[in-house]
TrEMBL record:
CDD domains, alphabetized: CBS_pair_bac (cd17788)
Source superkingdom: Bacteria
Organism annotation: Sphaerisporangium rufum
Positions of the CBS domain: 6-67, 95-148
Gene3D superfamilies: CBS-domain (3.10.580.10)
Pfam families: CBS
UniProt protein name: CBS domain-containing protein
Record keywords: CBS domain
């Protein structure tokens, strides 16, 4: 089983996409993350949904979970509003790291190793010319691997 056998179309965003739009896409389509592409449609990064949460959740609540407990329920339920006018660019890590990107010939084990190494719930599959084919998600990879 290779990436070409597992790849599926996958939504993309740009670094300038509003973060709230990215959050909406994640929620409505039940996605583990998004592929961030440049103007030419080439992958720049993979954005796990947890990175969007990191931008929405107040830093003091991340640093001390007990403080999250003292916020009244009405305000706590609206934490996503903190995304306001922010963009996907602000969700991306400051220090670039290995991108979870592979070619269509990668084996299931290569994809799994890449996911584990990069801690990414999805891997972008890219042709040699840089064209994005889609993505392999953790759910699809495990599902197919368990069937084999």
């Amino acid at each position: 089983m290779h990436a070409r056998d597992l790849v599926a179309e996958f939504p993309t965003v740009t670094a300038d996409t509003p973060a709230v739009e990215a959050a909406r896409l994640l929620a409505e389509q039940r996605l583990p993350g998004l592929i961030v592409v440049d103007g030419g449609g080439r992958p720049l990064s993979v954005l796990p949904g947890t990175q969007v949460l990191r931008l929405a959740v107040p830093r003091y609540c991340q640093d001390d979970p007990a403080l999250a407990r003292v916020v009244d329920e009405g305000h706590a339920d609206r934490f996503v509003r903190a995304l306001g006018g922010r963009t996907v660019r602000e969700c991306l890590p400051d220090q670039p790291r290995e991108l979870p990107i592979t070619d269509p010939g990668a084996t299931a084990l290569e994809i799994a190793a890449l996911m584990a190494r990069t801690r990414s719930p999805l891997v972008a599959v890219v042709e040699a010319d840089g064209r994005l084919l889609g993505a392999v998600t953790l759910q699809d990879l495990l599902g197919r691997a368990l069937e084999a």
